[in-house]
Amino acid sequence: TTDMKGIYSALLVSFDENGNVNEQGTREIIRHNIDKMKVDGLYVGGSTGENFMLSTDEKKRIFEIAKDEAKDEIKLIAQVGSVNLKEAVELAKFTTDLGYDAISAVTPFYYKFDFEEIKHYYNTIINSVDNRLIIYSIPFLTGVNMSLDQFAELFENEKIIGVKFTAADFYLLERMRKAFPNKLIFAGFDEMMLPATVLGVDGAIGSTFNVNGVRARQIFELAQAGKIEEAREIQHVTNDLITDILDNGLYHTIKAMLEEEGVHAGLCREPMKKTTPEMAARAKEIHKKYF
Ligand code: HMN
Questions:
Q1: DSSP secondary-structure letter at 268?
Q2: Lining residues, ligand 1, CB within 6 Å
Q3: Residue 258: in which H helix or E strand, if any?
């Protein structure tokens, strides 16, 4: 599993005026991440990929595009989770066949599934393929909070190799690090990368790395080297940037900033709104301020 450590951008997808996937624009986002942000990998099909608004065919197409563009240059994780378990299994098989290095699945959401159901979901997905799985825990969007003991139960399956931990619960994060020294833990909140790294995460997966990947790596590597003050200075600048991005609309603003870099990152998918001229103008200012 050590091969999977590092900095991953949560891949954005470029959509056109009609809400269709813009393949060329999406390829440009992937190239930008590899060539300019120098990320270790991509997390494809996450929240940032607007995945939960897409059809199965669209999800498959995006998984194909990412693999075709990235080849074996970087690591690829496919987020296949869905409240439709049959779809999750289908996507797990599809991405495993494509050669994805690992799959990931969000905790099943919307309905209040009990833990036995959640465990069944994970084991069904990963036991259907010859691959490895990273749990995607994001309680603030799913409402699913799992305890240390519940993570331990999921981790009994050796094919479940880690977790993407998108939460601000540093007590739980520390308990997980101590309890599961051999599992991979990825930080999911870019604005909390420094404290997460101090607690010993193996990497990070984030939306803002699509534009701020260079600073993100600096924070991660400085913190790992114990250079906390230097890391903190870069986290301060990063969080000024993230605050400005969040104030203007998360994915819209990152996409509009990429446009400033000549990357055709396009629009968001309905029901998300189309980027307004005001949002685009503000994104341009933000881009100028930080890059
Ligand atoms: C994904 O699933 O696409 C990402 O891995 C999610 C990632 O944790 C991001 N979370 C969300 O967008 C909800 C963060 O990078 C987040 O965007 C960033 O920390 C700003 O809050």
A1: P
A2: 10, 43, 46-49, 166, 188-191, 205-208, 242, 250
A3: helix 250-260
Report DSSP state, residue 274: P
Cβ–Cβ under 8 Å, residues 133 and 161: yes
Closest ligand 1 atom, residue 189 Cα: 19
Please check whether residue 103 is in contact with residue 63, taking contact to mean a CB–CB distance below 8 angstroms: no
Per-residue confidence (pLDDT) for residue 1, from 0 to 100: 81
In sequence order, the 6+-apart residues with CB closer than 8 A to the CB of 138 are 47, 106, 107, 164, 166, 167, 188
SS3 of residue 75 by DSSP? strand
Q: For 234-256, how does the pLDDT look when each residue is reduced to its tens digit (9 = 90+)?
A: 999 999 999 999 999 999 999 99
pTM of the predicted model, to two decimals?
Answer: 0.98
Q: Return the ∠ at Cα 211 (arms to 206 and 256), rounded to 5°.
A: 110
| Beta strand spans in 145-279 (E) | 160-165, 184-187, 203-206
Give the model confidence (pLDDT) of 132-171 as tens digits.
Answer: 999 999 999 999 999 999 999 999 999 999 999 999 999 9
Give the Å distance between the CA of 252 and the centre of ligand 1: 13
Count of Cβ atoms closer than 10 Å to residue 225 Cβ: 10
Residue type for 187, please?
A
Dig out the tokens for 207 from the structure.
């939306």
Residue count (the chain): 291
Q: pLDDT tens digits, residue range 81-133? A: 999 999 999 999 999 999 999 999 999 999 999 999 999 999 999 999 999 99
